[in-house]
Design goal:
Length: 404
C-alpha cells in the first residue's frame, strides 16, 4: 500500500525539468467589444483591492501544485488589465514572484492605447512589468468604431511614445484583419503604420466571429458584411509578406518578432509547458511525470469567483477540472508544436512521449497526405508546416489527430 501511494504522489508531481508561466486574468472593461467572447465584466467602478486580494488568495492555495517549476513569465491579460491600479497589480506580481523559484524574464500587461498616462506606466515599470502589449487592431477611426474600440488612431502613436518614455523597450501590438467592411487597402495601410512604430512583437490575426457575441448575432441575421474567405487569405498573405519584409521573424501562425523577442509566455502554450491561471475564467495546465496532464478553468462569473474565494480563502470550488491521458497530451503536443514555424523536433518529442510523432500508421498516412497537398514538410529531424500550410493549420491538426 505504501509503495502504491508513493507511486501516485510521484505521478502527480509536475515535471521539474520544465518551466512555468503564471497568467492573471483581469476581467474588467469599460465596454464590451462586439466580437469579444472572453470573461469580461463591464462595471462603472472596479474593485481594485478586492480583486487583488482574491487572486492572491487563490495563488496561495494553488502555488504548491506547481512549486517544482521555475517561473519564467507572468502575463496580465483580460479584459483590460491596463485599467488595474498599478499598486494593486504590483501586489499580485510581488506575491507570484515570492511563491516560485526562478526569475520571470518577461512580465507582460495587455493594454488599450489611451489606458495609461506616463505616471501609470512608470509605476508599472517599478512593479517589474517589462513588456506592454497594445490592442491596436486597426489604424482607421471608422474601423475602430465599428469593432467597438475605445481609442482612435492618434492614441496609438501616443501610447508607444509614452511607454518608451517610461522605460519600456519591449512593446507589442495586436492587429486584426477580416474586419467588417475592411478593405485590402486599409489592411495594407494599418500594416505600414504599425511598422513605422517599430514594435518588438506583432500578433496579426483574423477576426473570429463567436456565436455568443453581438457580431455572432449580426452574422446569423446576415447583417455582418465581412470579407470573404479568399480575401481574408489574401490579407494573411499580405501581412506575412509585409512583416517578414520589415525584418520580423514569423515564428508562429499569427506571431512575428524582432530577433530575440519571441513571446516567452505564449511559447509555453505551444510547447505544452505548465501555466497557472489565476482569476475569473483563467485556464491552467499542469503536466505530470506520469505523462498525463491536468487542465482546469475557473468560472467565468465574477460574482461566483469572488464569492467562492472569499468563502474558502483558497482555490475556486466550481473550477472545471479535466485529467488528460498520456495519449491525449501527446496529441496536443503535436498539433500545438505545429503552430510554431520551427515545427516539432522528432527526437525531442520521442524523448518526452516515448514515441516518434509519426510512429502511428494512421498519423503517418495523414502526414503523407498533407505533404502531398503542400502543407507539411517532413524530414528525419522535424515535422513543420510549409508556408502554405499555415492557412490550413486547423485542417492539418484534425488530420494528424489520434482517433483513439
Amino acid at each position: 500500500m505504501e509503495s502504491a501511494s508513493n507511486s501516485q504522489r510521484a505521478s502527480d508531481t509536475v515535471d521539474r525539468l520544465r518551466a512555468l508561466g503564471v497568467y492573471v486574468h483581469f476581467p474588467f472593461c469599460s465596454k464590451r467589444c462586439p466580437y469579444c467572447d472572453f470573461a469580461v465584466a463591464v462595471r462603472p467602478s472596479i474593485p481594485h483591492d478586492d480583486y487583488a486580494e482574491a487572486v492572491v488568495a487563490e495563488l496561495r492555495a494553488r502555488a504548491p501544485q506547481f512549486a517544482e517549476l521555475p517561473l519564467v513569465s507572468i502575463y496580465f491579460g483580460g479584459g483590460t488589465p491596463g485599467l488595474w491600479r498599478p499598486d494593486a497589480l504590483a501586489r499580485v506580481a510581488d506575491e507570484i514572484r515570492r511563491r516560485f523559484s526562478g526569475a520571470a524574464r518577461e512580465i507582460t500587461i495587455e493594454a488599450n492605447p489611451g489606458d495609461f498616462d506616463l505616471g501609470q506606466l512608470e509605476a508599472l515599470r517599478v512593479a517589474g512589468v517589462n513588456r506592454v502589449s497594445f490592442g491596436v487592431q486597426a489604424f482607421q477611426d471608422g474601423l475602430l468604431r465599428r469593432i467597438g474600440r475605445t481609442h482612435d488612431a492618434a492614441a496609438i502613436g501616443a501610447a508607444f511614445e509614452a511607454a518608451r518614455r517610461a522605460g519600456f523597450d519591449n512593446l507589442c501590438a495586436d492587429l486584426m484583419f477580416g474586419l467588417p467592411g475592411q478593405t485590402m487597402e486599409e489592411w495594407a495601410a494599418s500594416l505600414a503604420a504599425l511598422l513605422a512604430l517599430a514594435p518588438d512583437h506583432i500578433t496579426a490575426y483574423a477576426l473570429t466571429v463567436e456565436a455568443n457575441t453581438r457580431f455572432g448575432a449580426l452574422d446569423r441575421a446576415g447583417r455582418l458584411a465581412r470579407p470573404d474567405d479568399e480575401v481574408v487569405a489574401a490579407m494573411y498573405s499580405l501581412g506575412h509578406e509585409t512583416l517578414t519584409g520589415g525584418g520580423y521573424e514569423h515564428y508562429e501562425i499569427s506571431s512575428y518578432a524582432r530577433p530575440g523577442r519571441r513571446a516567452v509566455h505564449n511559447s509555453l502554450y505551444w510547447t505544452l509547458d505548465a501555466y497557472l491561471g489565476l482569476g475569473v475564467g483563467a485556464a491552467s495546465f499542469r503536466p505530470l511525470t506520469s505523462g498525463e496532464g491536468i487542465r482546469s478553468t475557473n468560472p467565468r462569473s465574477l460574482r461566483t469567483y469572488l464569492d467562492e474565494v472569499r468563502a474558502t480563502q483558497q482555490t475556486v470550488a466550481s473550477a472545471e477540472v479535466e485529467r488528460r491521458s498520456p495519449a491525449q497530451i501527446e496529441d496536443e503536443a503535436l498539433w500545438l508544436g505545429l503552430r510554431v514555424s520551427d515545427g516539432v523536433d522528432r527526437r525531442a518529442h520521442a524523448r518526452r512521449f516515448g514515441l516518434d510523432p509519426l510512429a502511428l500508421p494512421e498519423r503517418r498516412a495523414a502526414a503523407e497526405g498533407c505533404v502531398a497537398a503542400g502543407w507539411l514538410e517532413v524530414t528525419p529531424k522535424s515535422i513543420r508546416l510549409r508556408p502554405a500550410g499555415f492557412l490550413f493549420a486547423d485542417e492539418v491538426a484534425v488530420r494528424l489527430g489520434r482517433r483513439d
